[in-house]
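May I ask you to review the protein record following this short note?
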Amino acid sequence: MRYAIDRLVITPHDIDLLRSPLSGHLDAETYVLGAFNPGLTSLPNGNLMAMVRVAEALRHPIGKGHIHSIRWEAGSGDGGRYVLDAWPLEHADVADPRKFMLRGGGWRVMALTSLSWLLPVELSPDGLQIVAFHYDRAIAPAHDFQCYGVEDARISRVGDRYLMTTCSVSPERHSTTLYSSRNGLDWRFEAIVLDHQNKDMLIFEGLIDGQYWAQTRPLGDLYFAYPPGSEWRAGPSINLAHSPDALFWKPWHRPGIRPHAATIATSRMGGGAPPILTDEGWLTLWHGVEPHEIVGIYRTYWSLLDRDDPSSVIRTEHKPLLEANPELTRPLEDLMYVRDVVFTTGIVDRGEHYVVASGEADLACRITHVPKSRFRSS
């Protein structure tokens, strides 16, 4: 489906790496692999704020028989530094431009071709114009469990607090970390709130019976089969958890949103934008992945959840809400490294429409105005 307002608002060309947290640390040239997957919220002044993931990569990662990656390491009193690690090229599988797999360990081990940090970008109330880049408020690795980067912010406003979940990457763990803010611009690290490989944690924008609720997406290498003829397909699904304080989370005993056996387009799935409350229930946007080549085809779908029991799906649709739009990225063709990917990460209510923020092609930030009529029951 095409929308009247649907465009890229932030691209790699907009990022000033002289103001990057990595600037001056490495004796090697870097570039912006992608500026994408923006968390989105409304600021007290009415403007929007996109928390953009900047993936900063080495311009020439391969040299002298090795492939290199960037890592942050703690320092003594200097706040840490960024260093380069070198891996023998014969031990690496470099088929995926976003990462490389290391052979010979007996299990799957990977390293990244970039290090990600988060840049707050203030946008106009409609999300279509850049107001300011807040480099002085960038969020970069500051702990050992973030040494390979901080990724994919999702922002929820609950009461008078902004809560932001991020994915922190390291050899220690692949964890979900929580930040909080009173104004949507100045963020304080709170805690690790979910442990290994639970990437897509989205906190509901409001309490249910006095409790915080969240969608989660645990990953693994093994899934048990549903019975023959089941309407569900085994694989990653969107689960639920609740908490009294947004710090300590307990998984909910009923399943959330599961992949349907009737379509391979959602054979892999995960959360997208934090659920927001509407007159009919909680509106949640999520991603489904159809297997295709190395990365797959990412699309955005939606479901409506019961306002008192979010494990109950009132309405959903197999037709995608958003698909990758090659026309948007055509001016950036020389920067493209993946295709068929739209990854929605934020939503803000703007009256008759929603402002929906997505990452397009793991490259740029896409803003789409989606009419509320798109979600109404026929």
User: Anything to note?
Assistant: The CA atoms of residues 122 and 132 lie 5 Å apart. The first strand starts at residue 6 and ends at 10. The chain is about 0% helix and 45% strand.
